[in-house]
Design goal:
The chain is of the alpha/beta class. It has 2 domains: 9-184 and 224-240, Rossmann fold (3-Layer(aba) Sandwich), CATH 3.40.50.720; 187-220, no CATH class. It has 8 helices and 7 strands. It has a 7-stranded parallel β-sheet with strand order 3-2-1-4-5-6-7, sandwiched between helices. α1 links the parallel β1 and β2 (33-38). α3 (64-77) runs parallel beside α4 and α4 runs parallel beside α5 (151-171). The longest helix is centred in the middle third of the chain and has 29 residues, at 102-130. The protein is globular and about 50 Å long.
Amino acid sequence: MQARFEGRVAAVTGAAGALGRASAVALAAEGARLFLFDRDEEGLEATAALCPGAVTCAGDTTSAADMERAAGKALRELGPVELLAVAAGIVGPSKIAIEVDEADWDRVFAINVKGSWLAARSFIPHMRELGRGSVVLFSSTSGLQGSPVLSAYSASKGAVTLLAKSLALNHATENIRVNCVCPGTIDSPMNDRAIAASGDAAAQAARAAFQKSRHPMNRFGTPQEVAGAVLYLLSDAAGFTTGVALPVDGGRLA
């Protein structure tokens, strides 16, 4: 197997989730030295078990103190982080915008947007020290196109998309690239929960069929397919690519 990241330090937030885990495992398989962050300690350790030598840190992605503590631990135990994948995120309520509770709205934005900003703020200084780096934020097709039901999620992921573009402009002259991936519907526990919340068995079947029908390839993507896009954007092969929002969506936005 190609070892594009041999000896390079990579951090993954949301490492206990399906997309974070797939990205971490793929990075480890190509030689990266992994730092893994998530609030789910059990899931975090399960991911670490798949990434030999990984260093872990449990914490809240919405906490500046936790994220700074994580960045400090990574620096002490592995050295400066050169590669960062920010995979922590939630879907939130399936409601139109004006029916979303304030607390739910704030929680979605805190995890998806503030968490991405805090991760960038904590780890990009490592890249400045190295004189190079690459960041991938996790947006969504819903961050490129409005959603009739996942309004808070869509709004938050739209913010993540433009955060990535702004960061790309902020750091372009520092040899630090920032991009984001925009997955369509991915076969994952998060999607399973969203389908389960739609109602009884018939409603769940209808929701799943509708979601698949929105993708011309007529299937859900896999976490590994998203990880493949993440690794491309992190790699030197994407050395002249920054500020990109890359759909991984089976043609949904084509």
